[in-house]
């Protein structure tokens, strides 16, 4: 049948009653599976490259302080006195937590390309400025502003991805986005080591740690300047799709939900959405994941050097391979999660791997065995960042609520960053026993919460299938993805 002979989406809606089920609507699509497959590939190649690149820069820019610390920053700015290093770490997360939800409120109104590009340039200037500071207080102020400007990128990116893909397409793609970005962060220590070898003149620019900030700041600013040409917009704003492709892109996602209308909730409506108790559970799950990730990212080089006895060069170079391992394993598990349409077994298994890895780091004898534990710990903690985000997005039916859910989770995750930057105290070196056991305990809690929530979702799906309760999330035909 030719395209012109197919009924339009509007005609189908007009011929169906409001009670028409989602399954019936999907079975009457006005496009072929081949059309949809080609469109999804086209979307993939526009959504991910630049988003992955700039998010990789953001991960690099927020954690490069740990590389600079062992490259001479601690001695030059006396960050090794008292709690100065922990203070410089945690101030980042104050602005990061406060400005995430407002950023996701603004992004769809202004447009992703221009808003995100502004944020990228602004935080790049903060990183560049860190290369010229002579006092730990100035460094701390710049870290605070870095958190303010980085706040909008991650929740905004998850919001964008959630607006383009269907329920069981999300986990794999959020994982691809996060892990591709993590590749840049994973090789950051090697890059930082090379930059720390730069020496210019006889003054302060002979300090290698300054060049870590200067070069990485310049790269970020340049990325922000070219971002408007490469970042993708929300489906209703794009121009690279034909009218028919745009119709398919918007309709295929929203057929799982309520309608095809783009809704911009007011500030009051957004706040009302936050009172859904399930968002609190997702946020706790993400808090745990973020806290574990940040604690390992900030203190991994220190643990490698002080705890395992490696010298400066080896501590920097050995920081990267565990991330490559984590990326490969995480992408494989995310593919399995989407393919088999399961969420909780994968997330619980990854948290279990983190626990095993942390125990090996703590109690194994030889440094080589403890280093293997670092592989498992980084995989388990990093993999549950995109896994938990996809979990929250999958249980949210209405498109306008997805942005609120993502921002709320990542805002609470910023508090996890504060936790992660403080639980490894300098007085606990070299084993950092309290911090390690706090991280292990949180991973156990993640397993319990994920398992219990998934049992609840399965029960709700069963009740809805049997007609014993009204539409889930207020959307007829929607089902949770436990």
Task: Characterise this structure.
Residues 1-29 are annotated as: Disordered. Keywords: Membrane, Transmembrane, Transmembrane helix, Transport. It is built from 20 helices and no strands. With 482 residues, the chain is an all-alpha fold. It has one domain (34-460): MFS general substrate transporter like domains (Growth Hormone, Chain: A). Helix 3 (33-76) runs antiparallel to helix 8 (153-164), helix 6 (112-130) runs antiparallel to helix 11 (208-226) and helix 14 runs antiparallel to helix 18. The chain is globular, with a radius of gyration of 23 Å.
Characteristics:
482 residues, Growth Hormone, Chain: A, mainly alpha
Quick take:
This protein is an all-alpha fold. It has 20 helices and no strands.
Overall, the morphology is: globular
What is the count of DSSP helices, taking H or I runs of 4+ residues? 20
CATH topology descriptor: Growth Hormone, Chain: A
State the CATH superfamily name. MFS general substrate transporter like domains
Topology, number of strands:
0
Give the CA-CA distance, first to last residue.
Answer: 38 Å
SSE arrangement, N to C: HHHHHHHHHHHHHHHHHHHH
The biggest beta sheet is recorded as: none
Radius of gyration: 23 Å
Structural category: mainly alpha
Mean pLDDT: 84
Structural domain tally? 1
Share of residues in helices: over 70%
Strand percentage lies at under 5%
Name of the level-1 CATH class: Mainly Alpha
Which residues form runs of ≥5 with pLDDT under 50? 1-28
CATH architecture: Up-down Bundle
